Amino acid sequence: MSDSLGDRETNALQMVRAEIRLHELQRWMGSRRIDDMDRAMHAMLTECFGDLAPKPFRLIAPRSGGLAVLYGYGQAGATALQEQEAICADPLQIQAIPLEGIRSKPMPFAWRSGLRVGFDTRIRPVVRRSRGAEGLGGSEQDAFQIEAMRHPTGAMPRTREAVYIDWLSSEVERRGGARLEAEHSRMVSFQRRRSQYKPNSRPVEGPDAVMRGSLIVADSEAFVGLLSRGIGRHRAYGYGMLLLRPARR
Question: What is the greatest pairwise CA distance in the chain?
Answer without folding.
Answer: 61
